[in-house]
Write a structure and sequence with these properties.
This protein is of the alpha/beta class. It contains eight helices and eight strands.
Length: about 210
């Protein structure tokens, strides 16, 4: 059994690529952002704590103290499945927790690291819009005048974490917390770097080629 971990800074397109890879391979998509947003929508005590962090609008990530138990529960519910992880692990402590969860299971991991420059990330995130109905992501500025989803006609909205004042902070936090994870997997010889600058279809093609090497 092979699991895939998709790494990449905010705005790199890792969520889009993780979903595409999971769909192509018929694997379970483990999107931490989606899981937390669903928990917040349920209005559970934990979901309310997630929402409180996002409402601050300061680019802070939800603390491991809040997320680790939640993610571990979700992983253990799906241990029998091959998984594409999006947004986990993001710290070395989460790497250790992941290895502990899988223990002696004969599970292999492949790690895809999507690389995009900070300048490109900022530009992308300022134009990212999400359909409020189907969740499809588009990149278009508000001045384009297009406010509806091309797929279902739902309203396009901007995520709280994509406002200009939080973007740089999110990139800084990612670089600080996740670079050690990238270095760790590189040393283990299971890290595959992906150029995330080209169009989505080109990035998807490179990932598919390297996954099948």
């Amino acid at each position: 059994m092979v699991n895939y971990i998709i790494l990449g800074p905010p705005g790199s397109g890792k969520g889009t690529q993780a979903k595409k890879l999971a769909e192509k391979l018929g694997l379970f998509y483990f999107g931490t952002g989606d899981l937390m947003r669903k928990e917040a929508e349920k209005g559970t005590p934990l979901g309310k704590e997630f929402q409180a962090v996002w409402d601050k609008g300061q680019g802070e990530l939800v603390s491991e103290e809040l997320t680790d138990g939640f993610f571990e529960e979700k992983i253990r519910e799906n241990l029998e499945k091959s998984i594409v992880f999006d947004g986990f692990p993001r710290t070395l402590s989460q790497v250790r927790n992941l290895e502990k969860i899988y223990g002696k299971l004969s599970t292999k991991f492949k790690v895809l690291n999507i690389e995009v420059s900070s300048g490109d990330l900022i530009q992308r995130m300022q134009t990212r819009r999400v359909c409020s109905k189907c969740g499809k992501i588009f990149f278009r500025p508000l001045e384009s005048g297009i406010r509806q989803c091309d797929v279902c006609g739902g309203e396009l909205t901007q995520r709280q974490e994509d406002t200009p004042e939080t973007i740089k902070k999110r990139i800084e936090v990612y670089n600080k917390e996740t670079q050690p994870v990238i270095d760790y997997y590189k040393e283990k010889g299971i890290l595959i770097n992906i150029d995330g600058a080209p169009a989505i279809s080109a990035v998807e093609k490179e990932i598919w080629e390297k996954v099948n090497e």
